[in-house]
Structure formats: structure tokens, C-alpha cells
Design brief:
With 106 residues, this protein is α+β, with helices and mostly antiparallel strands. 40% of the residues lie in helices and 11% in strands. The structure holds zinc ion (ZN).
Length: 106
């Protein structure tokens, strides 16, 4: 399978969100691959992590284009998305970031 930049295609409207999901599933189900799935799809480790947490490719593409959330939606404190102390979770119909060890999370 050819390597591609899935998010870039989404951002530029070359594929739909559904098509992105199909491509992602196809790569993930291809067990003959030795290249990590996120590399084939052109996602960074951080983008792939968010996807693995349940963010859609569309959400991650939006973050790549417009910038990542920089505050925890639970406590409002700063999150540095380049450092992996966060979880991507749906909150109020939107994927947002939360500290893994959030002081306010119950
Ligand atoms: Zn927090």
C-alpha cells in the first residue's frame, strides 16, 4: 500500500471523512504491513494517539490545521499536547483533551 497523507487529503477536501475512515480501517486490517499504520497514513505519533483515543480523523485534521487544544477541558489548566500527559475524550459532542492525571477528574 502506498504511503499517503490522509489528514492533508481531508483538509483539502480530496477525500471525505467516511473515506478517511475506510482507508484507516483498510490499513489497520492489513496484517501483512510491517510499516506502522500511522506512518502509512501520514499521521504523527501525537495525531495517531488522539485517533487511538477515539478522535475521528476529521477532528485530528482540524487540529493539524487550526492548532491543538492547549487547555484541559476538565480543570482548564494548560496542556502541552507535544508531551503525552493527555487523553482525547469526547465532551459536549466535541473531542477535547484532558490530563491523564487531572487534579479535578473524579
Ligand atoms: Zn486537567
Amino acid at each position: 500500500m502506498e504511503e499517503s497523507d490522509l489528514l492533508d487529503k481531508l483538509i483539502h477536501g480530496k477525500i471525505t471523512s467516511d473515506e478517511a475512515d475506510d482507508i484507516g480501517s483498510a490499513v489497520l486490517s492489513d496484517t501483512s504491513q510491517t510499516t506502522p499504520a500511522h506512518e502509512i497514513l501520514g499521521l504523527s505519533q501525537k495525531e495517531w494517539t488522539a485517533y487511538a483515543h477515539g478522535a475521528d480523523f476529521e477532528d485530528v485534521a482540524y487540529w493539524r490545521q487550526h492548532g491543538w487544544p492547549y487547555r484541559c477541558f476538565v480543570c482548564g489548566r494548560k496542556i502541552d499536547s507535544d508531551n503525552f500527559g493527555w487523553l482525547a475524550r469526547e465532551f459536549g459532542g466535541k473531542i477535547q483533551l484532558e490530563h491523564i492525571a487531572c487534579p479535578k477528574a473524579g
